[in-house]
Amino acid sequence: MNYLKNILSLVLPVVLLSACAAGGEGKMKEAPLVKVAEVRQLNLSDTLAYPGKIVSEGDINVAFRVSGPIKKVLVQEGQYVKKGEVLALMDPRDYEVQLSATKAEYEQVRSEAERVIELHKRNSVANKDYDKAVAGLHRIEAKLRAHQNALNDTKLKAPFSGYVQKIFFDDGEMVKAGLPVLSLVSTSVLQVEAYISAADYLKKDCFDTYSCRTGLYPEVSFPLSPAGITRKANLNQLYKMVFTLDKSDSVSLSPGMSVDVNIVCSRTTGSNMYVVPVSSLFSSEDNSFVWLYDENSKAIRKKEVKVSKIRDNGTALVSGELTDGCRVVSAGVNTLKEGQTVRLLKKVSKTNVGGLL
Q: pTM of the full predicted structure?
């Protein structure tokens, strides 16, 4: 019995060691767990700052379309008016007389033309006389409409709702057609104008977001929408940009206020410049590589990259045959092999700290 115990004491450790070794080999064959990170194409942002000015989208000088003496200006500077409201009246006397004469002429020509047209239907009038009568009727109709419009134009109406900015003439003064009588400004839609340099004009295709601030509300940033840019520089080699101002309903802004316009210009440094974690880099034969993870095969393959810069935030700028959004192994890169199948390390839930659940 003692002899059997001695034999077992010698054999059992060997068997146990063999079993442990066999178990260890099984675990080594299991695909290793790896952590991956997304590759991002490098983007840089520059903020361009320029002084700007708030203007009204509708800021025009209003004028009569006919000439004559002003009978009455019906509004005052600073007054709010609605679209279609009468702003000023011109003395209509001459245009009323003109229209009355034209109406009398129209009745005479119309009567004669109707007689000729009726006779033409009976083949009692030559075609030449018929054509002459019809043409005469059309001319007098056009003349009548023109004189009716002229009389209507003695009332100067607001083309849009807004505020009277300035009045240039008083009652009784003579004005010519097209000469501004007053200026009208609309506050329904505000715009911002800014002038950018030629160097920044060349970056216009990279302009990303736009905003402005005013000293009256320094804590508020107002979004801007680009409305246009001139294609020709002025004498100072500056290009005019116009923006639509998306103002807050709780903030009162008016044309003439100065603002600071900020333009964020996003640009790429090159199609093959990417951001990767520093931990994803490893060296082989004096070259730098990353392990590129294939989503379909769950395998990794080595990709050579050129390191341009190591940044303080734990990332590196590299160039190579990568794509935006591809994934690289970011931990344990020195223990992996080409073509090896790997398993992704699952992210720990914020509600399962330590993976206890």
A: 0.48
